[in-house]
Amino acid sequence: MNKTLVIYILFILTLSYTSLTFGMGRGKSDFEAFDTPNDSGNSISLRWPSSPDESTNAEYIVFVSTNKNGPFEIEALHIKSNDMYEEGTDSSYHIAHIETNNLLITEISNNNDNINYFFKLVKRSNIDSVNIGMIESATPKGNWFNKLRLNNFIIMIIFSIIVLGCIKHAKKVQGLFIRKIKGLDAIDDALGRATEMGKPALFVHGLNDMDSISTIAAINILGKIALRVAEYDTPLKVSNIYPIVLSVSQEVVKESYLEAGRPDAYIADNVFLAASEQFPYVVALSGIMTREKPAANFFVGYFYAESLILAETGAATGAIQIAATDAFTQLPFFITTCDYTLMGEELYAASAYLSRDPLLLGSLRAQDITKAIIIGVIVFGAFLATCGVDFITFLFKPG
């Protein structure tokens, strides 16, 4: 099964590379116009051989018309003669892609389908010398599949197979290994300390809205913290800067209290909108930390310039502080002022780490395997490129 899958993948990679390679070159030597391959049907490509007397003083002009007999008065292209050479032809051919939507032909502006465009190539070496070129025609047509992005499609299939395989493995194997993250292990200690001191814990959202992946990860962590807080019977205050994040946080905390069997302990006012702007948000939270002196502060999400002010204020009150952010510019401030800091992808791994859900664990393991594969391919590709073999670069072309 595995050998068949590997052979199948290698066959597709070879086929895609071969198709891309053969698609780059065309055998004709005259001026030609043809439908641009792998597009949505709004482009025509022009290709013609270069001449020995090309220079910055000479120009190529391409006129367009919908009639073979003209008039050819509209310029579709105007370039220096030593510009726009075709890649991989050693400057022996020019190639240009004409967007038909941008052609100012009034009679077809409302209906651009199945129009046959005629192009006339002119080479002008100076004002007095004009060489009349050839006339070619083409009709733009849309393509269902972009072969230039076949590499992305193959990578997506391979990654999907790895994810499904890892999820299946995680469901079979109990206690799938994940490297210990000290910041997450310290959550119980921080909440235990808050319980012993009889003081609240403060959860601070970052400054991104609900469409940010770091905010989504913060919500997942909030749910686990709220569950522990409900079990310990410790007050939890959650600050927000966006109304949508506030609504989601309220529901998540409420659900956690319900899951812990203590819905009566949930206090809606403890999940609040502190402010709607950056520094008023900082001032409001600094006041809370100074007045109420929470025993544990959690800074989770994406932070900006306010990170050091918040963390420094919390450190001055003596609270245990745990930060988690993927804002790499703010990591130094959290590392120096907090007791534990989750850096970068540890923020995203926290949900799987805390919940031990096979679905999340399998996805996390698949991501690690995929990264290892990509690193291996890059190293192997660098070695091949050093040896003068660069075919593997097509894997990383965006298309």
From TrEMBL:
Q: Where is the DUF6754 domain?
A: 141-393
**Mind listing the UniProt keywords for this protein, alphabetically?**
Membrane, Transmembrane, Transmembrane helix
Segments traversing the membrane = 150-170, 372-396
Specify the domain of life of the species encoding this protein: Bacteria
Transmembrane helix found in the keyword field: yes
Pfam families attached to this UniProt entry? DUF6754
* InterPro entries registered for this protein in UniProt: DUF6754
Quote the protein name from its UniProt record.
DUF6754 domain-containing protein
Biological source species: Candidatus Scalindua japonica
